[in-house]
Write the structure tokens for this entry.
Amino acid sequence: MIQTPEPASGIEPPEDAEFRTEVREWLAENLNGQFRELRGLGGPGREHEAFEERLEWDRALAAAGLTCLGWPKEWGGRDATLRQQVIFHEEYAKADAPSRVSHLGEELLGPTVIAFGTEEQKKRFLPGIRNVTELWCQGYSEPGAGSDLAAVSTSAQLDGDEWIINGQKVWTSLAHLSDWCFVVARTEKGSTRHHGLSYLLVPMKQPGVEVRPIIQLTGTAEFNEVFFENARTAADLVVGQPGDGWKVAMGTLTFERGISTVGQQIRYARELADLEAVARENGAIENPVLADRFDKAWVGLRVLRAHVLRTLESGHDGASVDARTAAGQASVTKLLWANWHRGLGELAMDVLGAPGLIADGPGDDLNAWQRMFLFTRADTIYGGSNEVQRNIISERVLGLPREARP
């Protein structure tokens, strides 16, 4: 029988056990009343579910001091230890609490500003992230660059006290709901690859910014195209120095594939357990090939957990890990979870068999397994495709010869 992974440590120090109890009791008390119906809602392919209600939930977490746990206390955090942050994500996932709407701000942009930003930037942006009053999206991918961040062509030119931004971003999650976007743009004319990039903070609600939804296989549209046509942002809203965008962006990617992936694994374990229950009910578990795939899926989940915990222990702070190590750790993590989850979607369809071809969800919509199968086809593409991740590992970490490029 599939079981939820055990806590990060078998015997917890008293302060950690006390923190686990605090989180567990708060979730048990508050996932009731107005928030009762939010259990399990949201997440990849389902970000349209109860968005406003989940926003209020995030603000309730903030009021209880349960957002931005690892941030310094001076910026509204709790200076929580790595172990305590892992505990929070474990308990949050076990409680089947809803997917957070402020993930990009809290887990990506906030730590990036703390690590690389100015004091003025910290004062301006961290409180809004901490209190969930300003939402963020990520302006990395472009139509002509695919997963190759170093090939971006969106440009920004300094005009007096403002940057003027032109270009297009794609696959921008929740751009239609965001107040700000952190944008990697080329600020040195004639520069190529990793050189001449800057990391800009750009307001979304202004003339010159157009957001167009991208309809997915699931019928939903959490991804968007974003067009910048002479959009503007203040000259001092560049994180790090102009031209340091690659270094800062790599720091963000390290945060992206950090602690929150612990909770992700527990959600995956729940999905695996639920699918096993389906297989037992319809008899698919008696098929030795499918039974073997269930065993391999559980082993893969444990491998992912071991890798993430080892990576976190070696240094979660993107500013304290050398770029080569950070790139390798992040790429391996992405390869592990993306391929595992895509494989689970494929296993789900094989467990369902022929009935899986019929949309039998509410209103003849997709059921949960069909939606997961279709969305996980993108897991190995968004956030950096498998091919790009392997190139990063081979070229930047192992030092192998570069792949032939046009």
Q: What stands out?
A: Residues 1-9 have pLDDT under 50 and may be disordered. The two ends are 51 Å apart (CA to CA).
